[in-house]
Write a structure and sequence with these properties.
five-stranded mixed sheet, Aminopeptidase, disordered C terminus
């Protein structure tokens, strides 16, 4: 798509990004506060290769994605890249903006020497899956997640299947 630009997001862009994240088809419309978003963006800036990006068309933010390029001791020391939070304004979907965003994320990762670019998508987002596959992504492996469960002290509690209690692991990884 002609006439769009991709750039790193700034604090001034946060209201527009939060509006994109608030769309019902992204994270069920849940969005953080502007105050929390400011603190998060500041923390992201502390990472060497982690940023949120804005996609503009005619001076309006119409899309966003985040990209983290991760240093790696394995894979011959080549970095990998993770794309997250890919969102296009609902009124601009189907205009090539998502394609341009992912292509730019790939170019940025490639410039940093990443041997792969990965992303995850909600298992129910079949339209997004078809989109990513149309860009050349292939399903590879499995993605797992574990949501934190509050535990006592500084331990990390790992939830188990209902009725099995929980296991605690200390910060140094030793089971308790």
């Amino acid at each position: 798509m002609a006439g769009i630009s991709v750039r790193k997001a700034t604090e001034a862009d946060l209201p527009a990004l939060l509006a994109l994240y608030a769309q019902p088809d992204f994270n069920n419309g849940r969005v953080t506060s502007l105050e929390v978003a400011r603190a998060t963006l500041a923390r992201m800036a502390q990472y060497p290769d982690f940023a949120a990006y804005c996609v503009e068309a005619d001076g309006e933010v119409v899309g966003t994605f985040s990209l983290m390029v991760i240093d790696n001791l394995a894979h011959w020391g080549m970095s990998s890249a993770l794309v997250e939070n890919v969102v296009v304004a609902s009124g601009h979907q189907g205009e090539g903006i998502g394609r341009a965003m992912i292509q730019q994320a790939f170019r940025l990762a490639e410039a940093k020497g990443a041997y792969k670019v990965a992303l995850s998508s909600n298992i129910r987002s079949t339209r997004a899956h078809a989109f990513y596959e149309s860009l050349g992504f292939e399903k590879y492996g499995f993605s797992f997640r574990l949501e934190p469960v509050p535990g006592p002290g500084t331990s990390v509690s790992l939830s188990r299947k209902a009725g099995e209690g929980h296991a605690e692991t200390s910060i140094d990884g030793a089971a308790s």
